[in-house]
Structure formats: C-alpha cells, structure tokens
Amino acid sequence: MRRPVGRAAGAVVDTLVLHYTELPLEESLAILTDATRPLRVSAHYVVAEDGALYRLVPEERIAWHAGRSWWRGREALNATSIGIEIVNLHGDRHDYPAPQVAVLIELCRDILARHPAIVPRNVVGHSDIAPRRKVDPGLRFPWQALAKAGIGLWPKPGAEPVTGNIQRALQRYGYPPPGDVAGEDIVKAFQRHFRPDREDGVADAETRALLADLLDQVGAEA
Ligand SMILES: [Zn+2]
C-alpha cells in the first residue's frame, strides 16, 4: 500500500490535474481515503456536487491520482502535481452543477496563487496527460468557464491553422508523443479539452486552428 508521501526535496508543484470521480461522493471518499487498497488512489481535494469541499491530502505531499502520465516532456506527474477529484458519474453525460463549479473555481484560484509555477497550460485534465486510458473530466467539463476565471487556457477561433505534422504541434503544446497510444487518440484528447462538440480524432482545419491559437497564447510563456 502507498500512503501519501512527502515530495522530493526541490520538487516544484507546477501542474494541476482535474478529474471526475465516476462514483458518488460517499464511495469516492471511501476509496480515496482507503490506505489498504493494493492499488492506492488518492487526491488532494474532492469537490462534491453541492460544492462541499474535502481536503484529503496536504499539498506538500504526493497524492496518487495521475498514474501513468505525460505532459510537456515529463512523466509520472504525481510527484509535481495537485489533483482534484470532482464528483460526477461521467462527465461526457452529466453536467457539472453551478455550485460545484463555483467552489472548484475558488479552489483552483487559491492553488494557483500558492503555486505560481502552475502556468496556464499546466492546468490539465486527466485525459490530456493520459490519452485513451482516461477520459475525465469529460466533454461537459466547463473548461471555458474556468479559463474565463483565469484558470487554464481556452482557444479563440479563427487563427491560421498549424500546418505540417499535427503530432509535433501537439507535443509543442504539451501532449505526449504517439507510441503506446495512437496519434488519433492524442488528437482526440486535445479535442476532448478544447473542442468538445466534435471529438473524432481527425486533425481538421478547425482543430489545427484552435491549436495554433493556443500555441500563440503560450508563445510568451516561459
Ligand atoms: Zn482521473
């Protein structure tokens, strides 16, 4: 079993990972706090549907929420990330209630203020850092509302589409390279976050234009 452990000396928290629980609140809390499970899962926070906030693991400790993961050339992101589990049975089918989103936004703002290394593009969904394996927080997750509140990025339409190798462009933004996972699934992960109305894995002109705008937005980012 794996208890929450301290972060390595010098580890800087620079990534915020958002999840949905797939289970109701009580079951989620039971699993996320059960230290006897052989495959331990945990998270720093749980946000219930009514907006109740549960703090499970202190931010200075590692929680086990990301699993096999990759972002901007780094793997195993638990060591440097904070994980929030948001109660929702399936974020492709169930909306996130307004009271829950309001509390989530406040929580994310607090976290970003405490950890300035979490730059906007490092606010990610589990599906961004583990394409195909994970689909949370789902197509109905309000990424645009969060971006409007200063949490993460949202692309403006109408940019000149990126040309050439779509995978290279996705990697420049942060996505993992194809390998265990097909290139089409990486495109789907991008669409799942930034173009949720059509998640077909096709790097069409709109997908390329949205990616171009995001790359432009992060151009100045260190
Ligand atoms: Zn997850």
Walkthrough of the structure:
It is built from seven helices and nine strands. With 222 residues, the protein is of the alpha/beta class. A five-stranded mixed beta sheet has the order 4-3-8-2-9. Strand 6 and strand 7 form a beta hairpin. The relative contact order is 0.15. The model has no long low-confidence stretch (mean pLDDT 95). Bound molecules: zinc ion (ZN). Zinc ion binds at residues 19, 126, 134, 136.
The largest sheet is:
5 strands, mixed
Mean pLDDT: 95
Number of strands: 9
Total helical elements: 7
Strand order of the largest sheet: 4-3-8-2-9
Global shape: globular
Q: What helical percentage do the residues reach?
A: 25-40%
Structural class: alpha/beta
Distance between the termini: 38 Å
Strand content: 5-15%
